Amino acid sequence: MAISISVVLLLLIIMVIYMRNGALKITHAIVCLLLGFFLASSSMAPTIHQGLAATAQIVGSLRP
Q1: Could you tell me if 3 and 56 are in contact, meaning their C-beta atoms sit under 8 angstroms apart?
Q2: Which end of the chain has less neighbouring CB within 10 Å, N or C?
Q3: Which of these, 56, 14, 62, lies nearest to 48 by C-alpha position?
C-alpha cells in the first residue's frame, strides 16, 4: 500500500511539472488517467501489480 501511494504521488508531481512547463496538455493527462483506470479494471491488473511489486522489491534490496 505504501509503495503504491508513493508511486501515485511521484507520478502526480511529475505530471504537474510537465503541465506547468507546457510539455503535457490537460487532454493528454486526462487520457493517461483514463488509461490507468481502464488498466486497473482489466485482467492485466494483477500482472502489472506483481511486476511493479517485484521491481520495487529488487530496487529496495539494492545497497549503494
Answers
A1: yes
A2: C
A3: 56
Which residue shows C-alpha cell 534490496? 61
CA distance 20 to 24: 8
> Cell numbers 545497497 correspond to what residue?
63
| All three cell numbers of 23 | 510539455
- How many beta carbons lie within 10 A of that of residue 28, not counting itself? 13
CA-wise closest residue to 8 among 33, 31, 27 = 33
Q: What is the pLDDT of residues 4-59, one digit of tens each?
A: 567 677 777 887 888 888 887 888 888 788 777 877 888 888 888 898 889 989 98
pTM of the model: 0.55
CA–CA separation, 18 and 12 (whole Å) = 10
